[in-house]
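Retro notes - structure team

What went well: the batch runner handled both jobs without manual restarts.
What didn't: labels got mixed up in the shared folder, which is why I'm recording both outputs here explicitly, each with its sequence directly above its tokens.

Job 1
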Amino acid sequence: MFFELNSFSLNGVEAIILSIEAHISNGLPSFTIVGLPDKAINESRLRVKAAIINSGYNFPIKKIIINLCPADIKKEGALYDLPIAIAILCVSGQIKIKEKDKCCFIGELSLDGNLNPVRGIISMVEEASRIKKKYFFMPYSNAEQASLIKNIKIIPCNSLKDTIKLCLNSENLSRKTFLIKKTIIDNKSNDLDFCDIRGQLRAKRAIEIAASGMHNLMLIGPPGAGKTMLSKRIISILPKLSLDESIEVTKIYSLYKKNNSNLIKQRPFRNPHHTITRINLVGGGNIPRPGEISLAHRGVLFLDEFSLFPKTLIEDLRQPLENKDIIISRNNISYKFPCSFMLVVATNPCICGYLGDERKKCTCRIGEIRKYWNGISGPIMDRIDMKVNVPRLEDDDFINSNFTESSKIIIKRVEESREIQKERYENSNIKYNAEVSPRIIYDWIDKNNELKKIIPEIIKKYNLSARAIVSLIKVARTVADMEKSGDIKLSYFMEALQYRINTGIENIVNN
């Protein structure tokens, strides 16, 4: 006898539909699972048998074969317990599912038949909705998060017995309504405000531009100048995620927490230490998982003390910064993780930290400074849109409040700039100026006679690459949006240029 029902497997953050095929026949009693299962799936034989018996049903003493199809994809985890148990009960004739072809199942079983949550539920439900499935049976603790996806009925179940009861009568199936909670990322941004920062007006202006267009930013300055304070407060001026972005981010985080029932509304802020491993930064492992760069998707990846990160890790950022995703290959299978993030790095200008400081003399030799900066390759520096000096504060900055704006005021301007970008890129996949393709950049240049005239001079004078020019135009476009200008004026382009070349480091490194 043969029976088949549907479940899902994960490939990166994307889901793949699986067929759980059950075959039962006379012969020496056995229970075999095939289709590249891992150890956790093979152990499900014991969990499924105990759950079926403890739920009041008979486990068939026959030859049972379960095939996870397609058989050439590696499957891992205990999420197939529920569909395997249902398939065995159906193929042995103990139950009959109404509308089998419209249903799909996922869940880990306890020995007593209760259902435990699984990871990656949003990706699975999203795929089920895409292929027009009608019902999705899953553990109750996963249902609230899964209900974010529309056009499919989420059937929360507490146990195997509960699932079977619902399966037997499709008229009792109804979509459960959940109250979606908000913000599961604890980035402590409520305590961080730009009004805490005295002085540093140029750095604040650069940060506001970077936040408005999601541009990559480098802060350079001596110890104690405020680089880290400034960087950590960037999250306080970033608007909340849109619904589509929230689902994107929640999909990534759901791969880590099984019973996470919340919708992430606040942008991630990831701040890994420089001792982080390569796998934890970019993702990977025997069964690849997203790293910090993917966990920072649609948010900020802050690398403090950038020069202390190993050169191999810094170079690993090249492709993600350019393509906004990372592909990890294992056993002839490619796993794709999104990583469209705003990179913010902070570093000292030299080993001692006081190069260019007006009150404390730098003790580093020229060769040491060059070696220090040569640890950060040209291609990486080329991908950083804005580089800003953060000088030591003046003595009276601690006494006088100067001009200090709160994050609530700054975020309003950032939101206005992003609304302009949203309208401009409404019919495309682009969300921010930082994501604009070179084709659009060339079109902007062709329509602007001032830029057409000055760009060749700038390239010749500062020896800039084509990528650097594209980056300059993107930043200038963001400045124009902040000033509510339809055109990129020459003054906006020159301001963007100042953030690109006016750090004082280039003269020492290149001469």
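Job 2
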Amino acid sequence: MRILLGITGGIAAYKAAGLLRAMSELGHEVTALPTQNALRFIGEATLEALSGKAIDSDLYADVASVKHVQLGQEADLIVIAPATAAFLGRYAAGIADDLLLNALLASTAPVVVVPAMHTEMWQNQATIENVETLRSRGIRVMQPASGRLTGDDTGPGRLPEVEEIIDFLFSASPLTGKTVTVTAGGTRERIDDVRFIGNRSSGKTGVALAIAARDLGAKVHLIACNLNDTPRGIEVTHVENVAELSTALQKPSDVLVMAAAVSDFQVDNPDIGKISRSTVPEIKLSSSPDLLATYTKNFPKSFAVGFALVDEGEDVIEASRSKLEAKGVKVVVGNRISSLDSNDTVVQFVDANSAAEIAGLKGDVAREIMRRVAAHLS
């Protein structure tokens, strides 16, 4: 998920470094956007080192790039932590007098605000009304923690700990409390210890689906078929062939997304060692078991999503609907062979009653697929 982390000018700004690091370690792409006042409390070097991105909070620098619009439109989620009383007032009033507030007003992404200020400021009627205004607009405002504040006094207004903020950010996600198993990549069937029968699946779509499910709050188990690079914040089981994939699919899950390209054939007589070039082997093949149909039969309560890869001349929706019935799944995502090596794709999301086209980069398409799956579950 692409997260824009806004940091405003209060003493709690130093905690934003820990939040930035925690979100990054969960696999999210985080862009830090401190206000000019925030940089009085936390340095650019710290934020740049943790995010891996240059810090630029000047609204009037590089105006030609229209960066406030770019920042707002690229974000999947905007988090403001800490949010001062002054920021709450300006945001509630729609005043855009710095880069952060301009980016907020230019964005349609969900926003989470995490206030931090002195107790009297938090309990002031103006702050109370500003928070009510923001919440009425669908903005999630986290309740401050109680504890030691700047100086000797204590009370509500303290910025919550990083772990509490992380829990709050994802607690209302549509797949919270659900288990999602995603298979990705392509299986390989041994011919000998060097060679194999495989396929061209890159696993990009499956990995993107696992990330999308994680970002929607699910506990995700990724079964990676011959993939080296796997995302953080996700349980991963590495498998090589159909037999190992079958074993990994013995546990039920609320949702199964069968995105892996499973070999249709297995080698009955694999050799030990490396077959000599001078020897032309006679390879005997047998059909692989239908892992998806077996899973839906064993775990009928699971919401299973299958994939249909069709030739250029075939009707994607018709092929997907045929697989929908044959495999006993709730949804089939149909796409064409031409999407295998591309970073973007066009798919058909087919269920028992409808078909909808989803197009774009594979990450964006994956997010939309999982949002639709979550809608089915709800």
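One thing worth noting from job 2: The longest strand covers residues 303-310.
We'll revisit the folder naming next retro.
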